[in-house]
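Bump. Still looking for DUF4235 domain-containing protein structure tokens.
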Amino acid sequence: MPKAAKVVYKPIGLIVGMAGGAVAGLIFRKVWDRVGPGDAPEPLESDHTWGEVLAAAALEGLIFSVVRAAVQRGGAVGWRRVTGTWPGD
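Sorry for the wait, here they are.
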């Protein structure tokens, strides 16, 4: 990809990535509402067990990773449709 195209894609990729993070947070909260009691436990909250804290963290990490990959891939596909170049190569 020409250097100028990569420079143009960088801010677009950042904006799309931030939007993806917000979407992932919403998805996590909706999923947690269905599987866990109350808000997801934070690591420094003493009234939750190791298992509860680690399960919440694992679920959150899984959701964020999948959404991040989907958003990045979708952004790259859209970029290729518009410009004819793949942003990651």
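Residues 3-83 form one domain.

Edit: fixed formatting.
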